[in-house]
UniProtKB/TrEMBL annotation:
The gene is carA. The keyword Ligase applies. This is Carbamoyl phosphate synthase small chain. Its EC number is 6.3.5.5. Residues 1-130 form the Carbamoyl-phosphate synthase small subunit N-terminal domain. It catalyses: hydrogencarbonate + L-glutamine + 2 ATP + H2O = carbamoyl phosphate + L-glutamate + 2 ADP + phosphate + 2 H(+); L-glutamine + H2O = L-glutamate + NH4(+). HAMAP family: CPSase_S_chain. The active site is at residues 246, 331, 333. Small subunit of the glutamine-dependent carbamoyl phosphate synthetase (CPSase). CPSase catalyzes the formation of carbamoyl phosphate from the ammonia moiety of glutamine, carbonate, and phosphate donated by ATP, constituting the first step of 2 biosynthetic pathways, one leading to arginine and/or urea and the other to pyrimidine nucleotides. The small subunit (glutamine amidotransferase) binds and cleaves glutamine to supply the large subunit with the substrate ammonia. Keywords: Amino-acid biosynthesis, Arginine biosynthesis, ATP-binding, Glutamine amidotransferase, Ligase, Nucleotide-binding, Pyrimidine biosynthesis. Composed of two chains; the small (or glutamine) chain promotes the hydrolysis of glutamine to ammonia, which is used by the large (or ammonia) chain to synthesize carbamoyl phosphate. Tetramer of heterodimers (alpha,beta)4. The lineage of its organism: Bacteria, Bacillati, Bacillota, Clostridia, Lachnospirales. InterPro entries: Anth_synth/Amidotransfase, CarbamoylP_synth_ssu, CarbamoylP_synth_ssu_N, CarbP_synth_ssu_N_sf, Class_I_gatase-like, CPSase_GATase1, GATASE.
Length: 356
């Protein structure tokens, strides 16, 4: 069946329908990872977005037990070529069947290189995937321009708290759309991890007397999370060590008077170089974000830059002055991507008192 990807600038790509046949409108973003497509599909940070995979062949090792959450989150999926015959000893099915079961519309046969160049030159745009060959462009374009991602954190967070047992430090993990490997990375270091829904009050978190607090990644514009930002400010004012990733990093900055802004086309992939300003070492990182913190809007008495993006100079991390708090924009838990910066979890353990 034919399918069409329509961008809000009027550009139309024709391809073949994959996954669900329903029509969808979403923000179109691209990911440059060469592997890890299942982790991308199950990353809650993609809620409200449709993902273009720049690597030309997707699905060659099928569906494996590597999901980062219980379901897939992107609104749509766009690929150059979809493998019909996956080959891997861990394979449990095809990506085509997975997309259908997850009700995610997709399109294959698209020139993803040309599409990515458009998104890089013009910036991230909204778009539609449809199988309707008689679509009316004049009717569709206003709908595309009107689309907004909205409150997706409430959509992706857990419904109630749960615990991953451990004999070490007690860590409260705020689930703003957390990938599984964040809790797993802490659990592997002996921590007892209690995962809390995004809108949990700071008073409840602090009443549990955690040794440390983790603020997770998540989707959407951080400025729309006003209620959460107010609670993060209360967590900041406590003396509990805090480590934050991605959206959590942005929320902590906003809670302390900083500003965020949207990047032209974001950072999404597994090969982004970041420099640790403490050691001057460069690490290759996994990233998935469309917004960044403007570190110039934070007074040095509040926070100082800790990491910087080597490609474009944007902020990739903050160390909070006089506080046991540090935050990073990238994903030290990886999945997919390199685990070069996994040492940051060890730094967090040290902040809580060192190895037990």
């Amino acid at each position: 069946m034919k399918a069409f990807l329509i961008l809000e600038d009027g550009t139309v790509f024709e391809g073949t329908s994959i996954g669900s046949k329903r029509e969808m409108i979403s923000e179109i973003v691209f990911n440059t990872s060469m592997t890890g497509y299942l982790e991308v599909l199950t990353d809650p940070s993609y809620a409200g977005q449709a993902v273009v995979m720049t690597y030309p062949l997707i699905g060659n090792y099928g569906i494996t037990p590597d999901m980062e959450s219980k379901k897939a989150w992107p609104d749509g999926y766009i690929v150059r070529e979809l493998s019909r015959m996956p080959s891997n000893f861990r394979c449990e099915g095809t990506i085509q069947d997975f997309l259908e079961k997850q009700d995610i519309p997709g399109i294959a046969g698209v020139d993803t290189r040309a599409l990515t160049k458009i998104l890089r030159e013009k910036g991230t745009m909204n778009g539609m995937i449809t199988t309707n060959e008689a679509f009316d462009l004049e009717e569709i374009l206003p709908k595309l321009k009107a689309y907004e991602v909205g409150d997706v954190v409430s959509k992706v967070t857990c419904s109630e708290k749960y615990v991953l047992p451990g004999k070490g430090y007690k860590v409260a993990l705020m689930d703003y759309g957390a990938k599984n490997n964040i809790a797993k990375s802490l659990n592997q270091r002996g921590c007892e991890v209690t995962v809390y829904p995004a809108h949990t009050k700071a008073s409840e978190i602090l009443a549990s007397n955690p040794d440390g607090i983790m603020l997770s990644n998540g989707p959407g514009d951080p400025k729309t999370c006003e209620d959460i930002i107010a609670e993060v400010k209360k967590l900041y004012e406590s003396d509990v060590p805090i480590f934050a990733i991605c959206l959590g990093h942005q929320l902590m900055a906003l809670a302390n008077g900083g500003e965020t802004h949207k990047l032209k086309y974001g950072h999404r992939g597994g090969n982004h170089p970041v420099k640790d300003l403490r050691t001057n070492r460069v690490y290759i990182s996994s990233q998935n974000h469309g917004y960044v913190v403007d570190d110039q809007t934070l007074d040095k008495s509040v926070a100082v830059p800790a990491f910087v993006n080597v490609n474009d100079g944007t902020n990739e991390g903050l160390q909070y002055t006089g506080k046991n708090i540090f935050t990073v924009q990238f994903h030290p838990e990886a999945c997919p991507g390199p685990q070069d910066s996994g040492y940051l979890f060890d730094r967090f353990i040290e902040m809580m008192g060192g190895a037990k």
